[in-house]
Amino acid sequence: MSTTRQQIIEKTSELFERQGYHATGLNQIVSESETPRGSLYYYFPEGKEELAAEAVWYKVHHMSAYVRQRLTGYPDAIEAIYQLMMEMADHAEQQHCSAGAPIAAVALETAGSNERLRQTCQAAYAMMQKPFEEKLLAGGFAPDRAEALAITINAVLEGAVILSRTARESQPLRVVAAEIKTLLQCSSPTA
Amino acid sequence: MSTTRQQIIEKTSELFERQGYHATGLNQIVSESETPRGSLYYYFPEGKEELAAEAVWYKVHHMSAYVRQRLTGYPDAIEAIYQLMMEMADHAEQQHCSAGAPIAAVALETAGSNERLRQTCQAAYAMMQKPFEEKLLAGGFAPDRAEALAITINAVLEGAVILSRTARESQPLRVVAAEIKTLLQCSSPTA
DNA sequence: GTCTATACGGTGATAGAC
DNA sequence: GTCTATCACCGTATAGAC
Question: What CATH number has the domain bearing residue A72?
Fold first, then answer.
């Protein structure tokens, strides 16, 4: 795998996360990634759509692996998820709540106009849901409960990141972390 | 208030909801709103930014009024909120999950580049939070609990709408409705 | 693999007539 | 209030040389 190609993908996913799909031009991607101008259509012959799909895919692999790894830090599922969410709030605060929701940024702009990217984002969300579902299963939750709770965690995280970005405040992320903890506790099979 | 001006605002908010900010051009707004071409800069001399702020503002007034009205339908706060969320899922399904998250669409694309629109979206989210907070307060929840839960509802709704749009499936909305009901029940002061 | 030049359409915005 | 003409700029994409 060439470094150039990977550099383009990483910069694209970074720019999508900060600016969204339509606001990110191919020119900006090339110039900020400090990549040869001629390489873009060499590595991504189908143009922006192909590049965007790869960028989303790359980002979600990275994020879901991070989540899965972090969730192993605490044996208890509820505590692990709570600590992860608080850690995300710390992360957001460090970068002044300027980023987050990389899938949503692409999904909202393209779901209605580009079927390929819509499907990519759909698969991305499914992938983000899995680590939570697995951890809850391992924690003794019934399969249907684990799935419903993982969907809820996925949704509330996405929403809270957007609220935090908009308000430039990590508070929404911290609030929902505590509420999800409560929900998990009163849904716990051992409760 | 002229009809032309209002038509432009309504069509703009509709297009933002479906396509986002950058994908929606002034030309499209004029042509689809069937409005005189020359009127746009007459009513909105500051251009797209001013129009966008008004469109977000209009939409959020409309939505928060709808939510507040619907929450009066059931005396019990928990049941009222649950029914409202399920109603939103029905709505989404009727339009094939093609819309929703009108604030998020603008917020994600502009929060990092346009301070005015960022603040508008921030105020919009605050406005969306209020009806839930009020209903919970009236239902006997302590002020700080009502606020935290309203923030969570706001976040989970925004996230679930995005998940539903992306998957073309109302299931995420229905799932989070049930989970929020559980959370409210086990947070209830009368429980 | 990379470069440059270029095509073509669309963007937000302005000026000046009516 | 509205229209038209026009602006400069930007977007993605392609062709052909090296």
Answer: 1.10.357.10
Calculate how close chain B gets to A70, using CA atoms only, in Å. 22
**Residue B31 domain-assigned (yes or no):** no
Q: A137: domain range?
A: 56-187
Give the amino acid at A134: E
CA distance A134 to A149: 11
pLDDT tens readout for residues A154-182: 999 999 999 999 999 999 999 999 999 99
Q: In this structure, is residue B9 part of a structural domain?
A: no
Nucleotide nearest to A2 (CA to C1'): C1
Residues of A in contact with B125 (CB under 8 A): 163, 166-167
CB distance A166 to B122 below 8 Å: yes
A-chain residues within 8 Å CB-CB of B108?
A: 20, 101, 104-105, 108, 162, 165
How does pLDDT run along chain B (191 residues), one tens digit per residue? 789 999 999 999 999 999 999 999 999 999 999 999 999 999 999 999 999 999 999 999 999 999 999 999 999 999 999 999 999 999 999 999 999 899 999 999 999 999 999 999 999 999 999 999 999 999 999 999 999 999 999 999 999 999 999 999 999 999 999 999 999 999 999 87
Pick the closest to residue B184 from B132, B149, B144 (CA basis). Answer: B149
**Total number of domains constituting chain B:** 1
Domain for residue B62, yes or no?
yes
Closest to A150 in 3D by CA, of B32, B160, B80: B160
Answering whether pTM is above 0.85, one says yes
Q: Answer whether residue B111 is part of any domain.
A: yes
Closest to A108 measured CA to CA, from A116, A93, A118: A118
